[in-house]
Amino acid sequence: MKQIVCFGDSNTYGFIPAQGGRFDEHTRWTALLARTLAPKGYEVIEQGCNGRTTVFDDPKSPERNGSKALERLFQTLSQPDTMIFMLGTNDCKWQFHADAQDITEGMALLVSMVHLYWPDTRILLMSPAPLLEGASEEAGGRPFDAEGIRHSQELPARYRELARTNNCDFLCAGDIVTPDPADGVHLNAASHRKLAEALASRFS
Question: pTM of the predicted model, to two decimals?
Answer without folding.
Answer: 0.95
